[in-house]
Amino acid sequence: MATQRTRRRRGPRLLDLPGIWLSQHWQTALETLGRLRETPLPSAMTVAVIGISLALPAALYVMTENLRTMAGGWDQTAAISLFLRFEADDTHAERLSQDLTTWPEVARVHLITREQALEEFRALGGFEEALEQITNNPLPIVLAIYPTPTYAAPDRLELLQNKLLKLPEADFARMDTLWLQRFQAILDLVQSGSLLLGGLLGVGVLLIVGNTIRLEILNRRIEIEISELVGATAAFIRRPFLYAGAWYGLLGGTTAWLLVTLSVLLLQQPVSRLASLYRSEFQLSGLGFAATGITLGASILLGLVGSWIAVNRHLRGAEPQ
Predict the structure, then answer these.
(1) pTM (global) more than 0.85
(2) What is the DSSP-derived secondary structure letter of residue 15?
(3) Residues 209, 298: one domain?
(4) Residue 58: domain span
């Protein structure tokens, strides 16, 4: 009977260790959050700086993604617009469009007659008085030519344009996607710049968290020395500071998400008003689920790394003499 009581008093069972470990970490996390609440102004200023630092690259990402979405609709325009001579009639143009579809460079051809072009001008608005003065339709027939993906490159499009201009019915041609390709290149440049800016600001977040944790270590130096004297392990001493860095990262990432989301909501009405002037509709999109998860995960990781660096460096100076 005494032996059984001795076995019961030896300590927790092996199956209870994970629960005890999780309970200790949860208690440390809550205590660390309580310490942040005890100093609301310094904590809020640190979180605000982290949030603004992370919101800048996130806002650039949202801007480029919205512009790419907008450009996706523009990408449906024809690559080359071939304007026929005024002498060509609809029958001749229809036969020419059918012949062009047999070319290996051409995927499809869309015929725009004079009447259709005139109706498009009327639909655009602003030309009513000028159109009333016109007795005969001066607009030419246009063939909107969509190349195959193999011939969609700029150099091959130029070769196709030169080939089309050699047709006897051709008057002049215009490449409609060249500006779009330049626009895509600009977006790629902006996206690369946002990644570089995010990396630089990430280093700034590391420095902010590291300096904040360093001050916290200096303020709790006596407490750390007493803990080491009673046998506390390095992991036990390091744990609350790591959770403080994680909380700073999580709160800063949440602040960045709120700033970006609020900016999108504030800009939606002006963007909708601008789109309505072009007889279009466009809905701004904010940080999606994946981007939000990446932002929060990166902010927490930066907080942990910054606090880890500060703890490993400054705890050496806090050892009892």
Answers:
(1) no
(2) G
(3) yes
(4) 26-73+182-318
Residues 124 and 160 in one domain: yes
- State the Cα–Cα distance between residues 101 and 79, nearest whole angstrom: 14
Helical segments of 151-286, H only: 154-165, 178-219, 221-229, 234-277
| Higher pLDDT, residue 205 or 238 | 205
- The yes-or-no verdict on residue 224 having pLDDT over 80 is no
Q: Is the pLDDT of residue 63 over 50?
A: yes
Q: What is the DSSP letter of 25?
A: H
Q: How many structural domains comprise the chain?
A: 2
165 CB neighbour count, 10 Å cutoff: 12
Q: How far apart are CA 301 and CA 295, in angstroms?
A: 10
Domain check: are 42 and 116 in the same one?
A: no
CA distance 82 to 165: 8
Q: For 42-49, what is the mean pLDDT?
A: 89
Give yes or no: residues 228 and 140 share one domain: no
Q: Kindly state the percentage of the chain with pLDDT values over 90.
A: 6
Of 153, 176, 199, which residue is a domain's last? 176
